[in-house]
Amino acid sequence: MKIGFIGLGHMGSAMAGNLLKAGHDVSVFNRSPGKAESLLKLGADAAADIAGACRGEVVITMLADDAALAEVAWAEDGLIASLSRGAIHLSMSTISVALSERLTQAHQQAGQRYVVATVMGRPDMAAAAKLFIFAAGDPAAIDACQPLLDALGQKTSRVGPQPSAANLVKLTGNFLQAAIIEALGEAIALIGRSGMDRRAYVELLTSTLFTAPAFRIFGPLIADGAYEPAGFAAPLGYKDILLLRTAAENLRVPMPLVSLLHDRFVRLFAQGGERLDWSAIGGLATQDAGPPRALTTSSPSPAA
Amino acid sequence: MKIGFIGLGHMGSAMAGNLLKAGHDVSVFNRSPGKAESLLKLGADAAADIAGACRGEVVITMLADDAALAEVAWAEDGLIASLSRGAIHLSMSTISVALSERLTQAHQQAGQRYVVATVMGRPDMAAAAKLFIFAAGDPAAIDACQPLLDALGQKTSRVGPQPSAANLVKLTGNFLQAAIIEALGEAIALIGRSGMDRRAYVELLTSTLFTAPAFRIFGPLIADGAYEPAGFAAPLGYKDILLLRTAAENLRVPMPLVSLLHDRFVRLFAQGGERLDWSAIGGLATQDAGPPRALTTSSPSPAA
Amino acid sequence: MKIGFIGLGHMGSAMAGNLLKAGHDVSVFNRSPGKAESLLKLGADAAADIAGACRGEVVITMLADDAALAEVAWAEDGLIASLSRGAIHLSMSTISVALSERLTQAHQQAGQRYVVATVMGRPDMAAAAKLFIFAAGDPAAIDACQPLLDALGQKTSRVGPQPSAANLVKLTGNFLQAAIIEALGEAIALIGRSGMDRRAYVELLTSTLFTAPAFRIFGPLIADGAYEPAGFAAPLGYKDILLLRTAAENLRVPMPLVSLLHDRFVRLFAQGGERLDWSAIGGLATQDAGPPRALTTSSPSPAA
Amino acid sequence: MKIGFIGLGHMGSAMAGNLLKAGHDVSVFNRSPGKAESLLKLGADAAADIAGACRGEVVITMLADDAALAEVAWAEDGLIASLSRGAIHLSMSTISVALSERLTQAHQQAGQRYVVATVMGRPDMAAAAKLFIFAAGDPAAIDACQPLLDALGQKTSRVGPQPSAANLVKLTGNFLQAAIIEALGEAIALIGRSGMDRRAYVELLTSTLFTAPAFRIFGPLIADGAYEPAGFAAPLGYKDILLLRTAAENLRVPMPLVSLLHDRFVRLFAQGGERLDWSAIGGLATQDAGPPRALTTSSPSPAA
Q1: What is residue C290's predicted lDDT score, i.e. its pLDDT?
Q2: Which of B63, C125, D34, D133 keeps 20 to 30 A from C159, CA to CA?
Q3: CA–CA gap between residue A259 and residue A257 (Å, rounded)
Q4: CB-CB neighbors (< 8 A) of C96 in chain B
């Protein structure tokens, strides 16, 4: 299929590579130059500008945030101006529900099609074409994108006809992971404080009832306090919590656990934790608990 | 092995049955009568009192709470008074760390041995001998109990030499499950409010990154609001959160997510929810969110 | 003094009236017409546009939110374009710290002066010229405004040389009031649930240690559940909590009580509470508590 | 009036002194000896045991906690055993609602009368006979005690016929104060982080809308971080929060702000803060916020 791909960060590069390997004809574009080289070796075309990536049936965007995508969409030579009628914008970035709804309208008015397909998985899963994909939009348009999605992930779950639903689902996915980080962080703080071995505790959890990837990935990081290098940097996790919170405010859904996570991120940043993995919020409970002390029957009474 | 078994509730009966099936010689006792009948058919002996269940190498306790176990331990004919020197109290109830520490001392002073082996799993897992078991105490004493544990669970994880460590681990396990309930509850409230199908959302989660049993068990219950009949009644979940909170207070570990869960249970009980499954706390976010409304770009501004 | 006054809502009209009564020469402007009539009777001039209100030494703005003030400031005939060099923009609206900092720069570049003087007090206090005023900015510029401030309030507290400091102080003032609302709401819920008289309880509090106006104003409203008509509408209170939260995020200060208040407002709006007084968030604890029941010694144990 | 007074700590000694000065005939008793000397000089009688303090019309208890009062009440020579029929136990300690209800029953069964009169005020207010008193119980019994209460406080508010109501009111009073501490702590953290002067900010608050004693007492302590010596030690504040929380759990009232305060105290103790004034929980937000930095327009975006 003749497609464009805009946004060649860690995730985007790995994804564009898989599309090339699957035999698609891919024009790549990235605002800051020098990101395309390895893809050119795999046979990609280097588009000179956004419009240059909009000449196929589908253009995929995989950008950092709302601002980056809005610029690509509404630039003078942007998606809205350049995509031909009937062509598809396959939007895979983690962005706000509100921006996704604005894009739904803008593409519709321009006679273009808009499909959202958000992904869960770290860059290594992207490279292995093992992403989990949540797709939403017009079923026929998703059908048209399905060969591309098959080249990118291990499974595509269809979420519904409203494109922004896939954005909301993605945001809740990151929220659930952050909730597991916080819960693990508190449990590990308690266990460590009692004098038990934190790492052995995590192994025990993940070999019994807590087998989901989030436990296996974050548990050891928190047990060891090993937050560098970041697999997913804390500011990115914070961004997603903010996007989820805004969606929840707009829909009038109080989410106290989201508020707790938010406060954890703010505290982490007050300590200069911007460069750490987002699981570092799971280390704050340990900070609060102080050094290990043996299990004890002492009461918490004032006289203690 | 010649053993006693005290406490024939849903869990205890299933467990005692598996011990009998494995060929052990089991004297059973329950304070309220009439619970032993099906076990007698499997070959159990009916002990007339606590002392009658203390004549073997090991006596297992599987009781409702601290009060019940303390009574069994310190009654005139109780465990402390009746167990012979060197015999083992294998304590499997979900009880407080503090009581477990008192029992550690009391059995030691009486020349008896005390092993804690807490379990995770609902009654159906108990019946299928598929429990996950966390054992702690003197390694030789655990070794002596291992044939019994093998008849009860799919896996025994050894937690350390201090018996109460297994109690703490068990309590954190229930905390992690309750945390997943809360997180799912908030996410499902948001999804439902946006107009998406709640059940389809849960299927999508549990078929991708959120495969742990807690997601698969509680997700559908919360999506459907199906909290009766209770698999694990809310007051029991609350009890365990209180036990964990007390342990955390004693060790001086602030756990804000535990506080949030606590407040959820209190609110559920204010509504008369005592008979519901503990996953009903996951329905409170939906109560707060009000009826579904479509995803919207409307801002949360005062003018809205 | 020859001045302009932009923004004739409940607060603005009362304030402009006091300036006229104090003998100042006031040109008034409001975007939606028909608000100026009573002021014209007091001797005000009706400015035809924003520029028309910018011909004196000082122009006061008292607008609903950031958007309204930004429009007035940067419109083609707005404050930045129209104020003469050395003239003062006396900014009295409750707006964000960030907008205030942008205005600081914009006025400086335009050779104009910018003073922030935020106010605490309801419309009746504004009418009685009893507002509390927090002023910040260049001391000489504040001196120049002092006769105006004296006509508006009972006391001007100078906060410092950076104009936005007065915005931050104002926002914390509303936060402290909202915190009192929440605390009172929880206490009154408990008292009411115990069967005691809620109103008598409030009288007892406010006649002893809790004499601050916030207790005397909000206590009876919460005790009686009397949230209409709104003295200060809930969406305005929510707006201020959002502004404070943004300021706190930018400064990296975790404020868990702000998060709790935020979640309360969202829940109130999910119930359709937009028209209620902001003290209605103090009624949510009572919702959670259920109907009164007598003080009791019953334990919170599962068996209860 | 011929009375007994049991419990000669900071508060009790000051109160007993005022009763002596008002001309009452007071037998004093304290478990640990050496506390009575200054009172003997004022004319007090030293009772040899609890029974010795129970020979008058009224015996006042002012003890540290539930355990101390329960021991005094149910000791072999304790209040229940020693008070004559119709005599009054005037219970002024800060104790649990549950214990107060047990005492209500026990005294009734013994034909004795039980009045609760809790107090608000620090030792200096006790010494100056300026306490605020909340009295509950049979009106005739309170009438009988009124001369004593008049010698102790500036005002007695009658709370109702059920004695434990006065305990609940007292506990909510301390909760409201702790809530103000937390709110002030968060506001001061934000103000300090913005570079403004914390002490000047507090003066500005307390000279305008936040005039209640709690603001004037705790604001300067938090602004200065001056938590030693303790006016009211943190473990005592924690004890009262625990008592309130238990009462709220029993009445099924979720109080999220109580949970937040609880977690603050636990964190303070994890840092070894037991010797500090309870307002030290108001310093934790400042810990989280890090060092001051200027007000800024920088966004909290991931790129920041």
Answers
A1: 76
A2: C125
A3: 5
A4: none
Q: Given the structure tokens 């404020």, which residue do they identify?
A: C255
* Sequence ranges of the domains in chain C: 2-162, 168-288
- Token pair recorded at residue D92: 């002024």
B257 chain-A contacts, CB cut-off 8 A = 182-183, 186, 257, 260
- Pair B58, B4: CB distance under 8 Å: yes
- Å from B137 to nearest chain A CA? 13
Active site residue A2: no
SS3 of chain B: the string is: CEEEEECCCHHHHHHHHHHHHCCCEEEEECCCCCCCHHHHHCCCEECCCCHHHCCCCEEEECCCCHHHHHHHHHCCCCHHHHCCCCCEEEECCCCCHHHHHHHHHHHHHCCCEEEEEEEECCHHHHHCCCEEEEEECCHHHHHHHHHHHHHHEEEEEEEECCCHHHHHHHHHHHHHHHHHHHHHHHHHHHHHHCCCCHHHHHHHHHCCCCCCHHHHHHHHHHHHCCCCCCCCEHHHHHHHHHHHHHHHHHCCCCCHHHHHHHHHHHHHHHCCHHHCEHHHHHHHHHHHHCCCCCCCCCCCCCCC
CATH class of this structure's domain B168-289: mainly alpha
Helix (H) or strand (E) holding A132, with range, is strand A131-136
CB contact under 8 A, C238 and B302: yes
* The pLDDT of residue A303: 33
- Looking at CA atoms only, how far is residue C192 from chain B in angstroms? 13
pLDDT tens per residue across span A206-262: 998 898 889 999 999 999 999 999 989 999 999 999 999 999 999 999 999 999 999
CATH architecture of B2-161: 3-Layer(aba) Sandwich (3.40)
Contact D263 B253 (CB under 8 A): no
Read off the pLDDT of residues D32-53 as tens digits, 9 standing for 90 and up. 888 899 999 999 999 999 999 9
Q: Provide ipTM, 2 decimals.
A: 0.94
Q: Which CATH superfamily is domain C2-162 in?
A: NAD(P)-binding Rossmann-like Domain (3.40.50.720)
Cα end-to-end distance, chain A, whole Å? 72
For residue B214 the two structure tokens come to 């807690």
Partner residue opposite A290 with nearest CB, options D236, D239, D271: D271
Burial of residue D169, with CB atoms counted within 10 A of its CB: 0-12 exposed, 13-18 middle, 19 or more buried: buried
CATH 1.10.10.10 assigned to C168-288: no
End-to-end CA gap in chain B? 72
> One of C2, C21, C155, C170 is an active-site residue; which one?
C170
Using a cut of 0.80, tell me whether the model's pTM lies above it. Answer: yes
